[in-house]
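Table S5 (text form). Sequence records supplied for joint modeling of the two-component complex.
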Amino acid sequence: MKRQRPVYRIPKLNVIPIARKEFRQIRRDRRALGLLLLIPAMMLVMFGYALNFDVKHSALGVYDEDNTKTSRDFANLFFNSEYFDHTYQLHDSREMDDLLDDGTVLGVVVVPTDFSENITSGSEAPVQIVVDGANANTATTVLGYINAIIQQYSSNVMAKTFSRLGGQEIQMPIDLRPRIWYNPELRSAKFLVPGLIAFILTIAAVVSTSLAVVREWEMGTVEQIIVSPAKPVELILGKTIPYTIIALISTVTILLAGYVLFDVAIKGSFLWLFIVTFVFLVGSLGLGLLISTVAGTQQVAFMIAVIATMLPTFILSGFVFPIRNMPPIIQAVTYLIPARYFLVALRSIILKGVGPSAFWDQFLLLSAFATLTLAASSIRLRKLLQ
Amino acid sequence: MSTQRIIALLKKEFGQLFKDKKLLPLVFVAPVIQLVILGYAASFDIRNISVALCDLDKTAESRELAEKLVTSGYFTIEYATDDYGTIASYLDDNKVQMAVVIPHRFGDMIVGRQPAKIQVLVDGSEGNTAAIGVSYLNQIVGQYSTQILTEVNGGRSFGGINTEVRAWYNPELKSRVYMVPAMLVMILLITTMNLTAMAVVREKEIGTLEQIMVTPIHPWELIIGKLVPFIIIGAIDVSVVLVVMVFWFDIPIVGSLPLLIGLTGFFLLTTMGLGLFVSTISHTQQQAMMVSQFFILQPMMYVSGFAFPIDNMPRLLQGISWLIPMRHFLFIVRSLILKGAGIGDLWLQSVLLLGMGVCVLGASILRFRKKLD
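The corresponding structure-token record, covering 759 residues in total, follows.
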């Protein structure tokens, strides 16, 4: 820190000494360094398994009010279905209330008393489905399973009626064959792992730097910085570089863990992956530094960092909840969340394997974000140092 | 223990809180803004799936199908093209989530009673949207098929099954109803735990803890003085957030409010305890922040059932989730608010929560006292 300002005229940035100081400080705090390097990969391992929308191991109830041969055959379809781990036979409607209330079953199929009569006479047979709607997403999926089973039975019944009326073999008029690209088995892990990468990196980057400046302030070491010849830009860059390197290392470990454990391979170009990640990281670190220069105490810095990163990145970036379904005002708010752009680029590169033509606009916005946060934090710092 | 000293300490703590002009709005206003924004955003409901339509047929039949997609409300046709070769690029460039191709002679085949094929390409990189989108599409096409069959049969129905769906606890199947009570829990956790952790470590880092230790203050008094302000802040946050939930989001509390408040007290025991625990194992505020972020907040967010159903996790993680207080409190809050569950349904979770609260808070207090002695 005591180096003399160089005599030559060309403005030269004294970034290295500051970066070196920051590095030493991080390295001395073994616990913090360990946390920064290992936690991201650990998080991916743990959460990669936890994050899953697929509805498995759920239970269903069947309440057969009709209790005839026909209705029992119909009910058996649910007992033998592989969609549900367990199917309960219900005997009265009180039982239905209880099982739904305590969450034992996610849905109940109610077969009314006139079921077999309707089926044999060829008229439409109503069947009631009651689902636990508390978790709408799970309810939709369970409904899909139940409907698929009923649909099949229904087509059989229709075919029989048709042939009895003297028709030939029935064929559904439209044949729908969906093909799913990029993630044919529709595994949640595949689409959540890139999101998790964005989420973990945002948190690691913003949280680790948000205390960097304000700490010097609270500890009183900022006076020493003021008397040193270091310029605000140098300080900002010097403080960013070590964290960028650490965060890049954790990105690599996350990607490796994603490949080994969740079979998420990178289809696209490594170079673009690196460039996009780098720009995103610089922007997030800039944001962390900006928070650090705005907050007066570490406590405030921490609160701002958590409020600005954790829930918004989780909920507003498109990581878990699709942005298209949000109300327009909230959609406008999501443009302020840099992870949103990063996520589109990540999914394009990792899952789709497409080039920059698919995400150039996102990349430009990310670069603007990085420039903006770095510039703003430099300006704030200059003001603070004066 | 002397009430006088505790009151003096409380005055000091509150003075410190109110002096920090930036902290107060963060503590009281931020939760409401967060709840409102995130309450609207945290939705799994799939609507307006973007579609590129390639109608190569252009007959009344193909147009009817396209119209059925749009009127269902689940799909929006963003692009229409006649060029089959460009279909892939719409998906590659993130322009649409689904491409529907209606081939040549689609109408002829329908009229000629032959099975007509429709090609659908789905972007699976957003797996949840893709799965639900395909099931909606199946329903719409299935209905159209039945309609055609009925027309062939001269308007007579073929029987089959007619399903009537009723969703309990959340008749419109809105995910907001499930997520907003959970946000309440999350916001409570973030505010109370973080503040407790930082408040204690801060004194340690700045060195003022030493000064307090040389005063005649008893460790117990110090702990009470540190925790009470945050219990009050937590209580205010809960009330504000509950008011927003009931009056803004229109999610009534079906169960008993006093029971909810009592059980929230149990949960606060655990968050305070965890905050205090973090502060005893950290030397600097940076460490405290990372420990609470990575070891407490994140696991709680993912493994508690906040957004991802616990039933789908591997057995090991399901076991771990039992140790997470937020899992039990989330269950309590959702069952009580949405289903109107009483203590008879929630006693197990309540006992676990209380046990954890007493253990965590007790252990942290013991650890904290030892450090002070």
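Note: Chain A is about 65% helix and 10% strand.
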